[in-house]
Amino acid sequence: MPSQLKLTELISEEALSVKVREIGRALSDKYKGKEVVAICVLKGSFMFYADLIREINADVVSEFFGVSSYQNSSRSSGEVRLTLDLHSPIEDKHVLLVEDIVDTGLTMNYLQKTLAARKPKSLTTCALLLKPSCLKVECHVDHIGFEIPDEFVVGYGLDYQGYFRNIPYIAQVEGLI
Ligand code: IMP
Q1: pLDDT (tens digit, 9 = 90+) per residue, 33-48?
Q2: Packing angle between helix 46-53 and helix 13-30, nearest 10 degrees?
Q3: Domains of the chain from N-terminus onward
Q4: Using a 6 Å cutoff on CB, does residue 96 contact ligand 1?
């Protein structure tokens, strides 16, 4: 039961909001006077995405992409499945991909390949969190919020078995890894 798990705060609400503003400023400079299709990778990035796009001063079109790799465990299954496709083509558009966390890198790698195959004009990637010690495949991320140790984290959209997405800060779940 989630109430029996011990959570320890790792990144505060304030630190998150400072970082989101910083990434938002960089993206506003990049997309000044342009239109960008901002892709929210469901479900984990919905909160980061909602905050980030409000900091981007450009013409933003929202799209949602569903992928699943964990299937109720705290370790990646290594298999990425598309659960929801984009609503519209992205060919010849500036595309911004917004992910919650890069762990093994398999999901980001899959997303980059899948989107690049659709021939966008440009593809920029950002992830709120990166666990550098867990990377198994090479994947380039243009904007990273925080590098964190190999700990399972929840909150600010990230879940454990569907729980804790509503916690407004990033917390480490004790005893899972
Ligand atoms: P990867 O394919 O191993 O890089 O995993 C990426 C996906 O796994 C992320 O988009 C998250 O949904 C999920 N994930 C990885 N690490 C964590 C974590 O510590 N907490 C919650 N979800 C995680």
Answers
A1: 999 999 999 999 999 9
A2: 50
A3: 13-67+76-148 (3.40.50.2020)
A4: no
